[in-house]
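Extended Data, panel c. Modelled sequence:
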Amino acid sequence: MENLKQSTQLLDHPGRCIHIGDRESDIYELFCAAQEIGTHFLIRTCVDRLAGDGDHTIADEMDEVAVKGLHRIEVRDSNGDPDEAVLEIRYRKIRVLPPIGKQKRYPALTLTVIHAEERGTPKNRKKIDWKLITDLPVGSRTDAIEKLEWYALRWKIEVFHKILKSGCKAEGS
């Protein structure tokens, strides 16, 4: 009964629901659909979309943004050993355009791009370089770090799903 009550609370307040996804979720239609139903999103981008009036891209705008802070995180290298990464944090609100072939069907959206890029080059792992896009408010370094931490949690969720699928054979039942 408690789970049903919690589900009803979420359905009654869609603004509390945040879709968090990796690069495979970088779909403009998802951004629009989330806003239409009153939910939010935080997605790692793989597409350098047109921005502003269409004469430049998100990357062009983000190249102009100064580092607004640093954030230290603990990570594991390719051997599973603990390591530390220092991320340079940039963020900016940007007018993002739909893909060229879909501009008549979808509106331009004002979204915030958060770019977290690791300083230096790590020895036993890939360098962290996350470009996230969201419709959530990001007005400070603290807000940007909060969103980065939310995104980082998806790794734990993926491990949990892997355990359910392989260890618990959830898909077979």
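Residues 17-166 form a domain with the Transposase Inhibitor Protein From Tn5; Chain A, domain 1 fold (CATH 3.90.350.10). This feature is highlighted in the accompanying rendering.
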